[in-house]
């Protein structure tokens, strides 16, 4: 698996929906267009809803990888 380079990391393990999306969106708002945010979650519904919501917001989801039984990483490129 090729590793994705990222500019900022947001570790929100312990948070649940909708807070995982809200915190991810706020972090992305502070970044420049073209930069990549790595979000780490440990709540399975967030691993599905955060990428879906980010796509609906017009952002580019580069990938979602399961890191362990209970954690996932989500890579999002800021488009606008």
Descriptive keywords:
80 residues; alpha+beta; four-stranded mixed β-sheet
Quick structural summary:
The chain is of the alpha+beta class and 80 residues long.
What does the secondary structure layout of this molecule look like, with pairings?
Layout: E1 8-11, H1 19-29, E2 36-41, H2 44-56, E3 60-68, E4 71-77
Parallel strand pairs: 1-2
Antiparallel strand pairs: 2-4, 3-4
Structural class: alpha+beta
* Shape category: globular
> What's the domain count?
1
Question: Uncertain runs with pLDDT below 50, 5 residues or more?
Answer: none
Q: Estimate percent helicity.
A: 25-40%
Describe the strand arrangement of the main beta sheet, using strand numbers: 1-2-4-3
Oligomer: single chain
Q: Measured on Cα atoms, how large is the radius of gyration? A: 11 Å
According to CATH, the fold-level topology is Translation Initiation Factor IF3
**Any idea of the CATH class?**
Alpha Beta
Kindly report the name of the CATH homologous superfamily: TusA-like domain
Cα separation of the termini: 28 Å
